[in-house]
Amino acid sequence: MRIGLIGHGKMGQEIERLATQKKHTITHIFTEDKPLWNAKELSDIDVLIDFSLPSAVMKNIETAARAKANLVEGTTGWYEKLSEVQRQVQQSGIGFIYASNFSLGVNLFFKIVEHAGSLFNHFSDYDLFVHEMHHNQKIDSPSGTALSLGKILLKTVERKKEILSDRAASKIEPSQLHISSTRVGSMPGTHIVGFDSAADTIELTHKARNRSGFALGALAAAEWIQSKKGFFIMDEMIKDILRLSKEG
């Protein structure tokens, strides 16, 4: 597979390292100094993988759409323009997959939290929370992964109606789901989903040891999307893989 890599920070470098191990070819690397502007540059690329900056995402997607290049979007912080991106992908006929977190472990964690939420939906004595911790250089807060976890819980727990991601300056409403964040040192990405009652607390935790899980997931998504057309989320890829494994 011929890959065009957008962004060459720590994540981009890890993707490059693992792609080479998997016998894929990185044909182009686009950075802030050498941005992706010209669709003609993508003529020899099977899939683009973007881990750049939120400010560059829309331009990258527009260029990929003009070039008819399939795209794995790993950058977060642009989701307010999701409907615009979806429309552009559908009009151009490219394959596009995005996730707040491409770690395969995290996406399986999403499925576990979804099931847990459906269980606790029937037991109103339990309140819910999401807490995430990251290193002090992370740009967005709360993380895109934490917000995705929050949305899963809103979907599965009927008594929760909205996310509170700011500091709780006073008592919160029972219908609010509080998502809190900590930024400190070199803390690895950690996400905790808790179910709390007067009697006990149950916590589900995912902790990332390194960037390899994210990079491997992004490469798996690139392999999956390269022959597809349409707008997809990581959950659809996971479901498709599980379906194929059952059929196999």
How would you concisely characterize the structure shown here?
The protein has about 250 residues and is an alpha/beta fold. It folds into 2 domains: about 1-100 and about 210-245, NAD(P)-binding Rossmann-like Domain (Rossmann fold); about 105-205, Dihydrodipicolinate Reductase, domain 2, CATH 3.30.360.10.
What does this structure look like?
The structure is a single chain. Helix 1 (10-21) packs across helix 6 (212-225), helix 2 (54-67) runs parallel beside helix 3 and helix 4 (104-120) packs parallel to helix 5. The protein is α/β, with parallel strands linked by helices. It has 2 domains: 2-102 and 212-247, NAD(P)-binding Rossmann-like Domain (Rossmann fold), CATH 3.40.50; 104-207, Dihydrodipicolinate Reductase, domain 2. The chain has helices spanning 10-21, 54-67, 82-92, 104-120, 144-156, 212-225, 234-247; strands at residues 2-6, 25-30, 47-50, 70-73, 95-98, 127-134, 162-164, 176-183, 190-196, 201-207, 230-233. The chain contains 7 helices and 11 strands. Strands 2-1-3-4-5-11 form a 6-stranded parallel sheet, with helices on both faces.
What is the distance, rounded to the nearest whole angstrom, between the alpha carbons of the first and last residues?
A: 24 Å
Strand content: 15-25%
The unreliable regions are none
Q: How many domains is the backbone divided into?
A: 2
Shape descriptor: globular
Largest sheet: 6 strands, parallel
